[in-house]
Amino acid sequence: MPTVTYELPDGSVHEVDVPCGQSVMDGSVRNNLAGIVAECGGSCSCATCHVYVDAGLFDEVSDEERELLEFAEGVRPESRLSCQLIVGEGCGGVRVRVPDTNGL
């Protein structure tokens, strides 16, 4: 099972085993990590699961995700919505940084 490392807004770091097929957002929510609010429950309609992640580990950004990111605070080139980041075998060791702008 791949391990995802979450860097939270408070500076804490958490390593979580996330089953393949689940999203980075699911891994955070199921482990009660602060910072990924996930108001829409993963339906790609709110951007409260905004994270920073290195490019190349996940599928390309969809048009729908890109449009939502336009309205998120603190967007950078490495911005993604964690509900759209589906964990696979090649994702082990991925590190996501959670901005402190996710509606908290």
Automatic annotation (TrEMBL):
Q: Which domain of life is it from?
A: Bacteria
Query: Is Metal-binding among this UniProt entry's keywords?
Result: yes
Q: Does the keyword Iron-sulfur apply?
A: yes
Cited Pfam families: Fer2
Question: Could you name the Gene Ontology cellular component terms for this entry?
Answer: cytosol
Domain 2Fe-2S ferredoxin-type span(s) in chain numbering: 2-102
GO molecular function terms noted in the UniProt entry: 2 iron, 2 sulfur cluster binding; electron transfer activity; metal ion binding
Q: Recite the UniProt keywords alphabetically.
A: 2Fe-2S, Iron, Iron-sulfur, Metal-binding
Per its Swiss-Prot or TrEMBL entry, what cofactor is needed? [2Fe-2S] cluster
Question: What CDD domains does the entry give?
Answer: fer2
Q: Which GO terms describe its biological process?
A: P450-containing electron transport chain
The family annotation for this protein states: Belongs to the adrenodoxin/putidaredoxin family.
Annotated protein name in UniProt: 2Fe-2S ferredoxin
